[in-house]
Amino acid sequence: MRVLVVEDEQNLADAIVRGLRRQGMAVDVSYDGTQGHEMAMVTRYDVVVLDRDLPGVHGDDICADLVASGALTRVLMLTASGSVADRVEGLQIGADDYLPKPFAFDELVARVQALGRRATPAAPPVLTIGDLVLDQAKRVATRSGQPLDLTRKEFGLLEELLKARGAVVSSEELLERVWDANADPFTTTVRVTMMTLRKKLGDPALIETVVGAGYRTRPPQGSPQ
């Protein structure tokens, strides 16, 4: 899941970023509305965690522009005011959810995860192919009942490929969905991570390379999809 945090309180923003990354999300951050607006309009994020009172471009304007663009991005709006009137106004602008400060971090994570599921075509919480089982909520994967010791990036690659249900996913798409804006698009990061993932998955192979196009999952012969 790709998330953008736009929050001018830098310590709070950094804490949110660290926490979401620990949950396996690819997270970018902006500390002002002007840069945050540009990032939100250029990159396809699943969720934008958006402070309402921002310097530069106001959070309300960022939210309104995202809605007007037709993007599938979901907006979780943060504000220091918890009044009912403010919550109603934020939702009327187009926010998908609203969280007053201070908030419990576990609640923020749960709301971001819920919004992320709404930002992409619906996928079951547990993804399977052959004898491989990946539980998106628990962040665990097993093969033949044995747990797989995957890094966050390996898990993210496998999750994106399984969600594609056999369709080809390009290296560029995987880089965009699993890594953040700091990733160099000209590196071999995806290829190297894919190599280690395949080794951990073992045989028979579940991921195939489509030359010049990307990667896709393929169930072993005789196995269920």
From TrEMBL:
One Pfam family, short name: Response_reg
Residues in the DNA-binding region annotation: 124-219
Keywords: DNA-binding, Phosphoprotein
SMART domains per record: REC, Trans_reg_C
Modified residues (4-aspartylphosphate): D51
Keyword Ribonucleoprotein annotated: no
Domain annotation Response regulatory: ranges: 2-116
Protein name from the UniProt record: Response regulator transcription factor
Organism: Dactylosporangium cerinum
